Amino acid sequence: DEEPVTDGQVTLRRHFPGFDVELGHYPEEAPYHVDLATDDEGRALFQLPALGTYTLMGSHAQTAPSEPVEVTVDDGAPRATAWLQLPEASAIRGRLVDGAGVPLPDVTIRARPLHLFEPRAMEYAPTIWARYGEAEGDTDANGRFELAPLHPDARYIVFCRPDESSRDRKLVVKDVWAGTDDLRLVASDENLRRAVVTGEVFSTLLDAPLADYDVTLVIELDGRTLPAGLRTVIADDGSFRVEGLAPGYDYRLRIDARGHGLHEEPWWTADHRGHHVVAYLPAGGELQLDLRTPAGRPAALAAVTIQRQGDSFDVDGPIHTRANELGHVDFPALVPDDYTVVAEHGDRRIASEVNVPSRDARHLELSLR
Q1: What pLDDT shows up at residue 53?
Q2: For 198-212, what is each residue's pLDDT tens digit?
């Protein structure tokens, strides 16, 4: 049943192994990206700028793109042929109703892959977004819709704004497989309402509420943890409130205060009921570090890097500093946890792991060899 696609398109990209471009890790080389229309026999002939490895992917307006195919041309094989097969198109079908079950006509429904990527990445590689595609369609008089063409093996986020004048009232359903025929979208006030997270913060050191602290809220998108970008309001009584969370998405937060440890709230899914946090921050810890040369003299002005291990939020970078003239460094307000310490003095270097306890000061002496 294979027939040539005479009105399709083939995309060729230069392949750069070892770089995760979808996370923004790009090679120094400029991308090479060419699109060609297929001829009467479904073919596309590319003149390559250099030997190397390339990826090709076929596409057509009425179906999902092909899987990418990798080819290599070198001195021994300066020509290469790739066969690209377009999958059968799939769709997501369903119905949109309001909270009372009344169909909502003329609303645009959209589907996109469960994926987030750097826009520049599409110049370097066939991203999941490019491979799986996106689709949209309007509901009919009975609220029914069809989203096509979609990739038959992909999951999508399906979303809509029943009232386009209110950008914040957005209905989202995650993890919808292509081929779903009975997706029911209910645009009730509860489902459209933006979620909130509130909380109270207490100090175990002071045995009292805290009012001076920081809240870090992150959202999970395609396995990546990203800043949520929402404003935290802290009241005079020390309670906090964050508004504008997107219903259906997973969030996590961290609370920390100077001189204290931190509180990490486990992942939760935002919805109209809101989420409340009660956090008790332990006392902070202190690390006192003394560095010595092999001869036992102070390693004056040695470069020191300290990094907390297992930081699940990945928002705290390492702390870089230098020892004083006596080879001493003091870290007075650390989160109680395990740390990796790296010190460098001239051509000498040492790395060590240390646990910083709550309330107490930990003293560590290192000899650079």
Answers
A1: 93
A2: 999 999 888 899 999
Q: For position 316, what pLDDT does the model report?
A: 58
Instruction: Give how far Cα 279 sits from Cα of 47, 182, 217, 238, Å.
Output: 62, 42, 14, 11
- Ranges of residues in the chain with a pLDDT under 70 are 1, 22-24, 115-119, 167-168, 222-223, 310-317
pLDDT at 341: 95
